Amino acid sequence: MDRLARVLMSAAAHLLAGCGSVPLTSIPPMARIDAKTTDLSMLRVAVQLPDALRPRSGGVKLDVVTKLAGEAEVKTSFAMMELSARERGGLPAPPQNSSIYAYRLSPEDTARFEALRASMVEQGTNGKRGSMGLGVAAREFCRANAEPQAALPVTIYLMTSETKSFIPVIRDFDLLSDPAMAVGGNRFSPAAGDPRGAQ
């Protein structure tokens, strides 16, 4: 089983110059996402993988990075639960020899996220400036087969109450383009897109 390091969303401007390909049509809806107000009940993440890979159970998480003025950034991770077949509406059909896995926040972590947001809002009303940003972390994958692969393209989709549908935040990033993976290493950390850091 390969352990792949986190795939953390960076700002859209960094994405354009980064290792992934962000469709230009995704940038305007990404810019409207506000971590402080987005409806968590509508938050969905989907990961498209070649059939040679599959995500490990519990390996997909939502990372929330908060920062208060004068303090260090704090990252909090929230577990994502795989969607049932009836909850997967709106996802594109995967290409041949690929599969899509879709997720939502667990009820427990939805409550934790709400508490974190409430705390940040309270800090703001008390005059302490802060920011909050969302990220997707796909931390662990299992190899479904050990056959040599010419490429291992990964696409990540996001849906929020602002986007109202799944949008690709990174498209067809080849895991094998990372030198460590290409020579058989087991750690990998590409940029994967960021809807927005709320101010």
Descriptive overview:
- The chain is an alpha+beta fold.
- The chain has one domain.
- The protein has four helices and ten strands, in the order ααβββββαββββαβ.
- The protein has helices at residues 12-16, 27-31, 107-125, 179-182, and strands at 44-50, 53-55, 60-68, 74-82, 98-105, 130-138, 141-143, 153-159, 167-174, 197-198.
- A hairpin with a 5-residue loop joins β3 and β4.
- The N and C termini lie far apart (39 Å).
- Mean pLDDT is 75; it is low at 1-19 and 180-199.
Number of strands: 10
* Rg from alpha-carbon coordinates: 17 Å
Distance between the termini: 39 Å
Please state the structural category.
alpha+beta
Report the principal-axis shape. elongated
Strand order within the widest sheet?
Answer: 9-8-1-5-4-3-6-10
Fold blueprint:
Layout: H1 12-16, H2 27-31, E1 44-50, E2 53-55, E3 60-68, E4 74-82, E5 98-105, H3 107-125, E6 130-138, E7 141-143, E8 153-159, E9 167-174, H4 179-182, E10 197-198
Antiparallel strand pairs: 1-5, 1-8, 2-7, 3-4, 3-6, 4-5, 6-10, 8-9
What is the gist of this entry?
With 199 residues, the chain is an alpha+beta fold.
What key phrases describe this protein's structure?
single chain; eight-stranded antiparallel beta sheet; two-stranded antiparallel ribbon; 17% helix
